[in-house]
């Protein structure tokens, strides 16, 4: 819907498609200048943080997985880590390796879903994967095959691909035998070629110029590409060679909701600045720790080398990727890495003596963060001495990314307008692409809900838009 | 042997619409997780409206509509009526659309207090005090259970629709599937609390297969004797409060209805 005067127009895109969850977009353009781009998430509130209170400490992994059908493993892993932290338990050895394997499965299926079914149609001019499959059937079939491999990993370890049942505090209800993992390894070996071909395919896409100026936030872990654990690490936009870390327990002191002036939007900010989590941030923070194969594929596909801090195992060269359109390329490289990593874990697997370690309840507060496919997902729980949850705080990646996505939108729409793009359809296409670049998970971020309210200058109060 | 008359052009494919209300998207995603069948489904059905998968949203009417999610905002009340008016067959998919979902935990709570807990500016949030199933608002032709739904059951619903027959979704409990799978009973053998005896089949008895008790994510089975199960849960170490939480999670409204009715047949099974 468009309202316009000769100099001003307001464009509302009522429903973004090919994203997880429901959101609308609101643009305000005055005299050829984009004044405002606002993601209006109308995903209904579901009150997880409220009804988690009073539940037993064993329950957050199953309950919070229901926040999102696309990244339930991420919720289960962040919830387990946070509750275990509160109870003073650390899970290591083969149980930790199996958790990483499960998470690799979710990375493979979720990133592949986004690449092939949701995002690639943008680059090749189709409305959806069905249209894409008519023109590029082989590529779509390869994507479905890869996704199925990721699902097979989650299904074997978790019981089912969506809302797995086998995860529990301290590990798993049942761990697989080495023989059960063998067919998975056969399948993953086949997926290596599919994953490499996907990187090549995506590398051939036409990437519009764009650069996001947000700070990057991702977990970092010594010696490995951080997925299921790590320390929050920041690379500021204006200081690309400096890495700062902070303890996870201080997460809420650094990443805080902020009220944006003249808007109902609540944005998370990192030390008061706009930040971005997800593939681009991970590539910048941990890219040098990817496998040689993944790095070779990245180079071949034109992504170059990730920034590698000298002395940290890196080459001392390389650079961050700040073009959000190219995030699909980083995702494809991450899929290749996750396939290799899954194979490595299966190759080194020895069934642990017990499927889980005991996590006895005690009073305390615990923090957990993991790298969901679309970015850093933080959980905090406070428990009483009976193990009942007294307070829960969940900070999903999309809520953190919202400010950076809106700024991306502003920049991308502005350059579209500067090129003379005026049509509603053209602007809508630009906006949808800009949002999809970040693989947003809107069901996850619904408790950062923002309504589509147009403020009349000077009126001071909100009015229904 | 072929003539144009003997093999006429196929009629227009039935039109599929997929709509979302309050939910996690997992049940819609189950459709995209039908990797082997997805392109086949697209050949049989015109995917006319599926916002998560396609930018091409065509207006109704639709021949088959899959509805995910519960009714939980004032806007949903209007929208579900419009969706129903546009649907020849309306099938709810998943615990949210069929039983109010996990967000129905608000139904017995103080929603204003919930709002204040989660939102800095609760006055900006439009929500209903309840999260209710689609069938509380419009007629539903079939209800597919599960949190999330089962891929095989979804394919059965779509196949049955295309064949013009009723979906063959059994109404029995998880115990049947567990026996068929050859599992040792976790309750009998290990004293693990399990909702399998009162939970609707569909998942393939996943939890007992992985050594844990069923947690009821498919909601109550067609005939259940919940009061008979409760002493067994107590025997296996659950307090009154534990049992309450066990039953009041992903299908809280549906199990609450069974508790009120006592033993017997649970609510309508859609078109069955």
TrEMBL record, chain A:
Name of the protein in question: Ni/Fe hydrogenase subunit alpha
Sample GO molecular function, one term: nickel cation binding
Binding site for Fe cation: 71, 444
InterPro entries: Ni-dep_hyd_lsu (IPR001501), NiFe-Hase_large (IPR029014)
Keyword terms of this UniProt record: Iron, Magnesium, Metal-binding, Nickel
Listed cofactors: Fe cation; Ni(2+)
Record lineage: Bacteria, Bacillati, Actinomycetota, Actinomycetes, Kitasatosporales
Listed Pfam families: NiFeSe_Hases (PF00374)
Organism field: Streptomyces globosus
Disordered: annotated span: 299-319
Positions of Ni(2+) binding: 68, 71, 441
Residues annotated to bind Mg(2+): 49, 394, 447
From TrEMBL, chain B:
Domain of life: Bacteria
A single MF term (Gene Ontology): iron-sulfur cluster binding
Keywords: Oxidoreductase
Entries under SUPFAM superfamilies matching the protein: HydA/Nqo6-like (SSF56770)
Domain NADH:ubiquinone oxidoreductase-like 20kDa subunit: 24-160
Pfam families: Oxidored_q6
PANTHER family: COENZYME F420-REDUCING HYDROGENASE, GAMMA SUBUNIT, CYTOSOLIC NIFE-HYDROGENASE, DELTA SUBUNIT
Protein name: Oxidoreductase
